């Protein structure tokens, strides 16, 4: 999926019921995106945007996002810091592990007066001598650079070293421009260098944006070939031997009831708590929430975790529309609260009073029983005979 689409945005905005107009936060990481599109017009109220671990080569189409204060574009193919002047509220910018070589491009962030945190770890520009002094002197509004606080003494030193550092940065900029011009001319002339191969004949890719993008395209091409390839006889036998999980409709048609399933072998607790039926599943905390699906029906709940199904019949009929699903931030546990459809508050109150009466009756019997067991019987006197 090389581009952002409205369907993708709605899918990733499930926490906001798929509504994009007032969406505040969205995560689009690991989507193989090559460019930023659509989001600028569809999500103007966005405050937090995660775009890390994609293939984006240029920062663009974000100028309408006046409320955006955190932008994460780590692990992409960014070469130049640009087109962020319109982000008036930007406070935190993460560009970790990109390919930024031209350090002078940070001058484009001078208009972002609210910027307080900047992360450039893993970029080639950090190897330039005096890199930190140059950034601090160019962006005096920064409080943190690469997770390290900027102190007063460091600001003074940055001003003192400004001239020699700028000379070195300018020299590096010219070298970068020459390299980019050389690549552009080679592309115009149709000159393509053959990539080296290892001992097994597999292609070796370099650490640069072009090779990273080429590796992705080659991988996708191979995947498409494998999909279109006619399966062998062994593959067909293997596919037939796979145990397929039937749908709930298929189960009901075949068995007349829903079957209990726990394919992943997870620990869980299913209890009635007040007016709710509560299911707590011990999901490993490192499993992404995006890999978990929860389907609540009136008499059955089906939780799918990484393709493995946990299906349980419910002790009471519930209301699916009013059910609530939450995930523990510390332990990762999944909690599903399902309100009972026909919950009777009076019945619950009667049961509570009944339990109290039984408890009081037991407590009243215990002292009498204790007195009988502790009373000593009179000793037998032989002299009476």
Automatic annotation (TrEMBL):
Q: What is this protein called?
A: Dynein axonemal assembly factor 11-like CS domain-containing protein
Q: Member of which family?
A: Belongs to the tilB family.
The alphabetized UniProt keywords are: Cell projection, Cilium, Cytoplasm, Leucine-rich repeat, Repeat
Basic and acidic residues compositional bias: what residue ranges?
362-374
Which SMART domains does this one have?
Answer: LRR_SD22
Question: Which Pfam family is one of those matched by this entry?
Answer: CS_DNAAF11_C
Dynein axonemal assembly factor 11-like CS domain mapped to chain residues: 226-339
Q: Where is this region: Disordered?
A: 362-385
Name the residues that span the membrane. Answer: none
Naming one, the record's GO cellular component terms include:
cytoplasm
UniProt keyword Repeat present:
yes
> What is the annotated localization of this protein?
Cell projection, Cilium; Cytoplasm
Q: Where is the sequence biased in composition, kind Polar residues?
A: 376-385
Looking at the keywords, is rRNA-binding present? Answer: no
């Amino acid at each position: 999926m090389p581009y952002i689409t409205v369907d993708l945005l709605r899918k990733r905005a499930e926490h906001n019921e798929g509504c994009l107009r007032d969406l505040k936060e969205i995560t689009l990481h690991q989507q193989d995106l090559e460019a930023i599109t659509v989001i600028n017009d569809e999500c103007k109220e966005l405050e937090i945007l995660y775009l890390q671990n994609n293939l984006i080569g240029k920062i663009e189409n974000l100028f309408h996002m006046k409320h955006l204060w955190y932008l994460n574009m780590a692990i992409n193919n960014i070469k130049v810091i640009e087109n962020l002047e319109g982000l008036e509220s930007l406070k935190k910018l993460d560009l970790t592990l990109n390919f930024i070589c031209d350090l002078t491009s940070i001058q484009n962030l001078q208009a972002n007066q609210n910027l307080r945190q900047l992360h450039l770890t893993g970029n080639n520009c950090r190897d330039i001598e005096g890199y930190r002094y140059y950034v601090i002197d160019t962006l005096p509004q920064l409080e943190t650079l690469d997770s390290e606080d900027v102190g007063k003494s460091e600001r003074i030193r940055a001003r003192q070293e400004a001239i020699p550092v700028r000379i070195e940065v300018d020299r590096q900029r010219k070298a970068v421009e020459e390299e980019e011009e050389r690549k552009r001319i080679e592309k115009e002339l149709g000159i393509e260098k053959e990539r080296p191969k290892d001992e097994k004949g597999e292609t070796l890719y370099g650490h640069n944006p072009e090779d990273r993008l080429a590796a992705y395209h080659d991988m996708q091409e191979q995947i498409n070939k494998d999909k279109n390839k006619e399966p062998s006889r062994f593959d067909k036998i293997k596919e037939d031997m796979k145990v397929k999980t039937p749908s709930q409709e298929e189960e009901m048609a075949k068995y007349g009831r829903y079957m209990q399933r726990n394919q992943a072998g997870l620990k869980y607790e299913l209890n009635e708590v007040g007016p709710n039926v509560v299911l707590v599943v011990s999901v490993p905390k490192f499993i992404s929430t995006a890999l978990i699906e929860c389907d609540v029906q009136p008499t059955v709940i089906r939780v799918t975790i990484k393709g493995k199904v946990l299906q349980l019949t419910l002790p009471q009929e519930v209301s699916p529309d009013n059910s609530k699903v939450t995930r523990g931030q510390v332990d990762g546990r999944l909690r599903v609260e399902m309100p009972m459809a026909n919950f009777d508050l009076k019945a619950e109150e009667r049961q509570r009073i009944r339990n109290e009466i039984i408890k009081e009756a037991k407590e009243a019997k215990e002292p009498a029983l204790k007195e009988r067991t502790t009373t000593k019987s009179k000793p037998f006197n032989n002299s009476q005979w």
